[in-house]
Specification:
This protein is an all-alpha fold. Helices cover about 55% and strands about 0% of the residues. About 0% of the residues are buried.
C-alpha cells in the first residue's frame, strides 16, 4: 500500500498524537482503524449497533428511554426533513409544534 501525507493544523495533530499514544498506536494506525470501522453516512446500523446506542442513551442521558422516544425522534427527523418542523421545544422530550 502506498503511503500518503495529509495536512492538519497543529491542534488537530496534537490531538491525534495524544489519542494514538493513549491507544498504543501510531497516528497512521489510528486513522486506518477509524476508516476501516467507520460507516458511510447513509449506512444503516445493525440491530446490535442500534441497541448499543439505546443503552448508551439510557446509561448516560435518559434512564427511562424507550420505544416511544425512538419513534418521537424518528417522527421529528421526518418532520424536519419535510419542512414541517419549525422549532424544537415545549415538551419534556423532543418538543412539540404549536
Amino acid at each position: 500500500m502506498a503511503d500518503h501525507t495529509i495536512t492538519v493544523d497543529s491542534v488537530t495533530y496534537s490531538r491525534l498524537a495524544a489519542l494514538a499514544a493513549h491507544r498504543g498506536r501510531t497516528i497512521a494506525e489510528l486513522l486506518t482503524d477509524f476508516v476501516r470501522s467507520a460507516k458511510p453516512n447513509n449506512a444503516r446500523l445493525t440491530p446490535e449497533e442500534l441497541e448499543a446506542q439505546r443503552e448508551y442513551i439510557r446509561e448516560h442521558l435518559v434512564p427511562d428511554y424507550g420505544p416511544a422516544d425512538t419513534e418521537a425522534g424518528e417522527r421529528m427527523l421526518r418532520d424536519l426533513i419535510a419542512g414541517r418542523l419549525t422549532h424544537i421545544g415545549g415538551g419534556p422530550r423532543f418538543g412539540s409544534q404549536p
